[in-house]
Protein: Toll-interacting protein
Amino acid sequence: MATTPSSRRDQVMIGSLPEDFLRVDPSVPTNQQTPQQQQINHDEQTARAIQYGGTGTGANTMGRLSITCMQAKLAKNYGVTRMDPYCRIRIGHAVFETPTDMNGAKNPRWNKTIQCNLPPGVDAIHLEIFDEKAFTTDNRIAWTLVQLPQMIFNGESKEDWYPLSGKQGEDKEGMINLVLAYQQVPVMPMMYAPQPQMVYTQQIPMVMPGYGYMAAPVATYPPAGYPPPMAYPQVPQQPQMVPQQPPQVQQQAPQGAPITQADLQSIQEMFPNMDSEVIRSVLEANRGDKDATVNSLLSMT
Structure:
């Protein structure tokens, strides 16, 4: 019996779930995990680092990663015309793209440098190469997962060719040339310093023309350990004088010419197939202007 989508939805699984259902085994080495499992691990590490705070690079520094996409050598040109490849890089939850190499085909060259902050717990970057299309969705040609080498965290830069996977198979779609570098960037203290809290402790009198005396609050920042400042003596506040606005004169809409039966008859002769009530409504909307009414009726026919 052939199965249909509705019949497959009606099927249920009876029994206990397997031990590895929706779980990633941490004992499996990173190079033996599937790309989906590796991405789940990276997202979990990033979420844990954000939850517990800290940058992992020191209290006053942050990690700055530099990625230069030099060029790529692809195994095949997909499509009838020459491909227009561009590279998309994902670092944690941030996504970057290189410019499109028009007619780059199998040997695109970008020479694009991307500077970004390295999120805590991220030790690999996900890279994809797309063929840009004008009228359809961009076609994904190749992809790879690049592990960040330990030498770049020691202040060295690394240039290497990394294999690409795709329709041709695992690590058989070509290679891409990348230059990786990493440095510690000092964080300015003012970027994260909490703003002092304003405390309204006193009021001073102010004289405004036409309004009399008004009490205005003064914001102070009392240092820790100091007694609060003495308040100024309260000045009796006089009633505020609100300037009166001149009364607004409501402008009446100009009245049009009176509508006569002769006007309706003359317009009805010009439009014999038009309903008389419609002609009257249009004439009233144009305030008796026959020329405007004729133009409106012409636009309706």
The longest strand covers residues 169-186. The first helix runs from residue 5 to 9. Strands lie at 61-74, 85-91, 94-97, 109-117, 124-131, 139-147, 158-166, 169-186, 199-208, 212-220. The two ends are 61 Å apart (CA to CA).
